[in-house]
Amino acid sequence: MSIYQSLISGAIVLSFSTPVFAVGTEATPQTVAPAPLGVMVAQNSRTVLSDSDLRRINHYSTQTLEALQALDASTFSDSAVATLRQRVQRLVDAGQRSGMDLIQTADYFEAYLTTNNDGPLPGALLDADGRFNARSLFTATMLFLENNEAQPVDVAAVEEADLAAIGSIAQRVTPQAPVEQTMQLSVTVLSDTTPALPVIAADAPANVRAILERVQLKGDQWMITVEPGDSLGQFANALYGDTLFFQRIYQVNLDKISTPNSITVGQEL
Length: 269
Hints:
Mean pLDDT: 74
Number of helices: 9
Helix content: 40-55%
Strand content: 5-15%
Structural class: alpha+beta
Distance between the termini: 46 Å
Strand order of the largest sheet: 3-1-2-4
Order of helices and strands: HEEEEHHHHHHEEHH
């Protein structure tokens, strides 16, 4: 029986580094033999998922997987990346409604992939071991959406306030005759700024530090030579904190690479 079938048929506990959640209709999880695909089954649970929880989370997991597959097959347009971010957000929201935090939802999605994905994932999003890291993607996505959330603006209210302020000033200010004024311009010459290498934070993870230490400065550009196991997503994560920013690197290297999924050892990007 596959792990996905187990999720539907009974109550089990999935655990990755630690037991994180149980799924099923029964209040007390059953003890199940070790599951395949690197998912360890344990007895203790923290969150019990009902059948409705499962259906909802699996639905959004399917949508997120479809967005990943579309990204791999697309020309890596901004709209494809935006769709993936939206799907991840909806999946994380569904996990929260079921009592799971972001990390638990990401781990669930990785388990979902092992039995529901039969094709390659975007190479740009794989780590040095060729694995897809859902935790990194989910965390960066939610941080991006939080920092870039559009603030609603009531245009009519703003215009009304501006007109009221202008009218108030016009009513209490007596027009005066124009007075000749002389204006002197001053020009400040800014000194040339010297491009700098990326700053490596003291608490930077080892994988991020390893990449940033390889970055070289040539003219006003950061350059890095591709080594075995590298991907554009790893470079983007180290430089920008978001693997989906691999597009930035891809766009400035169109003369060297035809797809962000495939970079060649020895290339200087």
